[in-house]
Amino acid sequence: MTYEAKTARRPEDANTFISKSQLGWVDVEDYGRANNIYSGIPPPKKQFHGSKRLYPKESLRRCQEWVQDLPKDQ
Q1: Fewest CB within a 10 Å sphere: which of 14, 22, 43, 44?
Q2: Mean pLDDT over all residues of the chain?
Q3: Rounded to an integer, what distance in angstroms lies between the CA atom of residue 10 and that of residue 14?
Q4: DSSP letter string over the chain?
């Protein structure tokens, strides 16, 4: 998993677009600060090689859990 800030086209403009749900938003003025916070969270280490778990004694870490590592006061 990685976090990457990039410029992209609107998904709604693609012929293959079906739907999207808004999870939240960041004000334009706060984008730089938010980007610094997000890029400072280390991603989980690789958990699988193909279908084989690399660290079976450790619990799996999903992407939703990764973003919950954000500091609560940010």
Answers
A1: 22
A2: 84
A3: 8
A4: ----------GGGSTT-----------GGGHHHHHHHHHTSPPPPP-EETTEES-TTSPP--HHHHHTTS-TT-
Give dist(CA 47, CA 63) in Å, integer: 12
Cα(66)–Cα(47) distance, integer angstroms: 13
Name the band, by pLDDT with cuts 50, 70 and 90, for residue 72.
low
Query: Please, are residues 20 and 11 in contact by the beta-carbon 8 Å criterion?
Result: yes
**Number of neighbouring beta carbons within 10 Å of residue 40:** 11
Asked if residue 68 lies in contact with residue 74, where contact means CB atoms within 8 angstroms, the answer is: no
Give me 71's structure tokens: 């500091």
pTM over 0.70: no
Domain boundaries, the chain: 27-68
